[in-house]
Amino acid sequence: MVIVEIGNDWLKVIQVDRSASGLVLARVDLEKLDPIRGAAPERLAQILKKYPTSGGVVYGCLPRQMATVRILELPSTDSTEIADMVELQAGKLTPYSKDEIVVDYKIVGAGRDGYTKVMLVIAQRSVLRNRFSVMEEAGAPLETMSISTEGILNWIRKVRPAGSHRGAVAVLDVDASFSDFVIIAQDRLLFSRSILIGAAALQSDDASVRDKLAREVGTALQSFAGESAGVRVERLLLSGAGLNVPDLVATLAERVDMPVETADSLQIFRKTPNSPSLQQPPHDTVSLTALCGMAIDLNRLDFRLVPESVRLRKELVRKARALTLLGCLIVSAMALFSMWGTLRYFFKRTHLGDIRRQVEAKADTVHAIDQKMRLVEVVHARSDQRLALFNLIRELHVYLPSPDIIVLDTIEFDGDRGSLQVSGLGASTGDIRALVKGLEQSPLLADVREDGATTQEGNGRYRFRVVCRVEGDDVG
Q: Following DSSP, what letter does each residue of 34-94 receive, concatenated?
């Protein structure tokens, strides 16, 4: 994880590695900025070269003084109604038009019966767009942007988890040019205020600056007491560069009338780099509490302060990448299909060539077998019992009348054509027709008919000839 904060006076970059044994603060870069020029993309690119921004997540942290934060108690528990109310309230809390601001909120708890408490954040669109643009030009586009107050909330959840104290805890995180004052109870943010007094002014010999900060903290506590009756703040926790301000703890203790404790923001890490040292000038005025808190758990950062133009561009880039990926998949599928078709054609052609070579090698054997099969067919045809002359004569005998009526003198059988011709003498033409009708009943004979004219001879008998075709099932 890489967390970047571009403030008005300091550029802060940290890299946090997560392991099974805990969090490691791998690298820290702090650089003083020109209040007029701000962060230069070229310089930021040089710094980020040392960070694994291409394979990790880069989050932006917006300083509290650059945004308006309000805790609102809205008379609804319906999410749709709350969203409409937040939009309405955002227009009232800032002098800028709706097109000039970015608004986000999160529900921080339940208020009175039927009410909901929300934390509202309003930031100028130009401020956000500038930071997103600088990071993009530096080659490390931001995933999203959250506010430093949310980072402090995450940090106090780690340092003072829910259940470790009964009442509320106030946290004063002192940065270079401002201080972030928040009140937290049971992991919920109850109050937030930005105090425009920072460590750079507090480290002067002028004790009045420390008194002024203490008065601002006292005023904030009174405002909170008026808004949240019944919630007791049991202690004040001083963090960030406030640890490096002499006599600040004693000054606060006199003003707020409660125990004042100090907490090092880096205590959550198992290992930290040796440099830069946050106790030595010029880095002793810088606070890393918000950045460290963001790195504890990115999934608990609810605010997404992203300008609409950046959001649309990211969406277009995401869709373009999705379409590019789809195009690549389609081209790959077509290439694979083409390769599969080519390989299939190649293997089929190779297989066909193998078959042809095998056929050619067996051609003589196949020809010899073919000749033998034809010979078998001829033998089988000639051995067909249906064509045996004995069977034909026996079949004729079944349908012949007595010799005094019909006498056969010629039987001709053509085995190739399967035809049978018989001729003889009959007592009358009726007897001859009776013979034809009888032979038609034979299962072995078909198409029985008289062939030629029937003539009468001198002895009074009739000369005839009958032809038919041999077929039917085997008769013996």
A: BTTTB--HHHHHHHHTTS-TTTS-EEEEE-GGGEEEEEEEES---HHHHHHHHHHHHHHS-
Tokens standing for residue 398:
């079944």
Radius of gyration of the chain (CA): 54
Its pTM surpasses 0.85: no
Task: Give me the residue label for tokens 């550029």.
Answer: 11
* CATH numbers and ranges of domains, the chain: 2-306 (3.30.420.40), 385-470 (3.30.1360.100)
pLDDT tens across 124-135, in order?
A: 999 999 999 999
At 202, list the tokens: 């507090």
pLDDT tens, position by position, 175-198:
999 999 999 988 888 889 999 999
Q: Which residues pair with 59 in a beta bridge?
A: 3, 144
Split at pLDDT 50, 70, 90, the class of 474 is: very low
Q: Which residue has the tokens 């890489």?
A: 2
Q: Closest by alpha carbon to 78, among 117, 108, 116?
A: 116
Phi and psi (nearest 5°) for 466? -120, 130
